């Protein structure tokens, strides 16, 4: 009886390891692989003027409120540290709280991912008529990049895989 239990436990543990490895390699290839630039571009950007100087917290809040569907799929507690690159080094924390996104200036040690958007790309994103299509295009051209900080399991639990897919990062 003890021999059967040991064998069952070993088989279950081995199956768990195999499934974990398969999921890990699938996610590494699909979500974190660099994408090539699109062959055609749609006219999804409209001119917008962002004042010179640092991007203000209110500008980030305005964009987040205008585009809540951009964050669809993220679970409560998901934390993105947003960096505006090629600018004055602005950093903002975007946190999912009760199906809304809370924005504050600064950094956090609890971030799940770092999302980097260059200033020109952010300006285009602000003026976009379709934030998801714009984000996908900007990601494919390198104006948006991200770095995973949390474990793959944490990212999965907090809904980042669906979020990445919905916004064209996969």
In brief:
It is built from 6 helices and 5 strands.
Relevant terms:
170 residues
Question: From N to C, what is the helix and strand string?
Answer: HHEEEEHHEHH
**So what's the CATH class?**
Alpha Beta
Q: What name is given to the CATH topology? A: Nonspecific Lipid-transfer Protein, Chain A
> Which structural category fits the helices and strands?
alpha+beta
Helix content: 40-55%
Distance between the termini: 48 Å
Number of separate helices: 6
Structure notes:
With 170 residues, the chain is of the alpha+beta class. The protein has helices spanning 2-31, 57-66, 119-126, 131-141, 152-157, 160-166, and strands at 79-85, 91-97, 100-105, 113-118, 144-148. It has one domain (34-166): SCP2 sterol-binding domain (Nonspecific Lipid-transfer Protein, Chain A). The chain is built from 6 helices and 5 strands, in the order ααββββααβαα. It has a 5-stranded mixed β-sheet. Helix 3 (119-126) packs antiparallel against helix 4 (131-141). The longest helix is centred in the N-terminal third of the chain and has 30 residues, at 2-31. It is elongated, with a radius of gyration of 19 Å. The model is unreliable at 36-43 (pLDDT under 50).
